[in-house]
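batch job 7 of whatever, protein = DUF1343 domain-containing protein
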Amino acid sequence: MYTSFNVKMLMNGALALLLAAASCKAPQQQEAAPVAQSTAAKPETAQAPIITGADQTEAYLPYLKGKRVGMVVNPTSIIGDKLSVDSLHALGVNIVKVFGPEHGFRGDAPAGIKVEDSVDPKTGIKVVSLYGKRNKPTKEDLADVDLMIFDIQDVGTRFYTYTITLHRVMEACAENGVELMVLDRPNPNGFLVDGPILEPENKSGIGIHPIPIAHGLTVGEFAQMINGEKWLANGVQCKLKIVPVKNYNHDMPYDLPVWPSPNLNTQQAILLYPSTCLFEGTIFNHGRGTMFPFTVMGHPDMKDKYSFSYTPIGIKGMAETPLHQDKVCYGLDLRNYDVSTFRKTGRINLSWMMELYQAYPDKERFFDYKQSNQIGNIDKLAGTKKFKEQIIAGVSEEEIRQSWEPGLSQYKQMRQNYLLYP
């Protein structure tokens, strides 16, 4: 069960940060949220603890009084060490519905498994699945909701589906006149802005926004970008309020107190994810079916090339039928890779993909994801068909990176308009 994963206690700290109001216009016209003050001016003082939006209950509880509240949450949605739904319900907030994304409300569904509507046995609150029959709240779902809260931990990549859930929730709220409050959380990969921009023909369930692989935004900042760039259907605008993180900037390391999904169960995996998730579009296993997913890559046919080996097995709640199940896979072990490299270079790693493609004996099958039981083809993951073509052609890494321009630089400039934190 995902909810049995190790949870580190968040510090509750001072609850004094005021609620940041954001209108439905571009951020230049929004009521700007106060930005956490840098401690650089006081080098003698220890860094103040990061306080998430959810933990600043005094900033938003008065606003919830008398409102019928819907919540888009999962097991990362915590106040202190308890699920925010449980905490707010106990505090008397009138939560009328919980909306659960991929992996479900309490996080016990594997990646890609559809989730049904239900009633939460602990609180008696109706749970509406956004990863089953519908992917967006309907008019009927929102008929008895005055305010929606979005409180989910993201990991800063385009193909991590929670920002797509955010988009659809914002769209439904805008279409039905429901205000959305984002309880913001740090992005553990917030320092990283890199990768090709998603091209329109490669939109899919793992990517819908014209952004790079690593977008460098918190969920609150992402919500502002969705509004500001008018990405919602028909240009509708969502009435938006953001409770920003206190004492945070994008360069800060941030160890997640709750693992964000069953297969991102270590800090190492979270920091490797922007690079290693690309292997979902190949016939290589990348750790699904082990207790260290996204930190190893291997294939049964690589025995003559690599000495490191592991055997994927079915693991309930994580990967019940992993690629190459019960077969010994040989390849790369990145469990001890120095992930500070990403912070130093500001780049995702392309060398692992290039190396394993060149080493694999049957190159025509390397990107044959249809035979791999994985989530999508490499074009949708990378956001462009050029990436696969470049790997096959043996193009140098610098040439590949140059092909991401001018789109990547233009995105970095646009991103500046929506930042809440240094």
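notes: Residues 162-176 form the longest helix (15 residues).
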